[in-house]
Amino acid sequence: MTRTRLTAAERSEQLVDAAVTAFAKGGYAGTTTDDVARLAGVSQPYVIRLFRSKQALFITVIDHVSTRIQQVFREAAPAEGAQLTDLADGFDRLLAERHLLPVLLHGFAAANADEEIGRTARACYGRIYELVRELTGASAEEARDFIATGMLLTVLASMRVIGPDPVEQEPWMIQMVESFDHHQKH
To answer: Which residues bind DNA (predicted)?
Structure first.
């Protein structure tokens, strides 16, 4: 049996995918480069050789998640006349990519303690906000409300209230999700 060698770009992509999974589960503080290396099937020194530090890897992961969110929003928007509801439909696709949204929350949390991560997280958040306005022509208030709803969904997805493999639903969860669904239909 012959093994196919991955290119440097493919190996880097594999490491970023593994890092998304690892950071989604453990956050920035609770994840080591060794955790990422084990998930990717490489050595820890290899991770450091490619990314220099855990901080640089985490920043790469935040950028990756932000880029994926923007890609999904662009794909969900029709060529002309995009509405916020089109982007909301795209957000449903993001929920299926289970590890993306928790990483985003971990990035925001780490931003408080690490200025470089903070700059990256703020820039990513700003690009998403600006893209929402650009694609839909939404006012600042409409875009803010859309982003606020997205953050609520991100929190709910991170707690596994919604999305793939949800936890057993408690009454407050059902009420919140039902009221959200009702609000979306009107």
So the answer is: 32-51
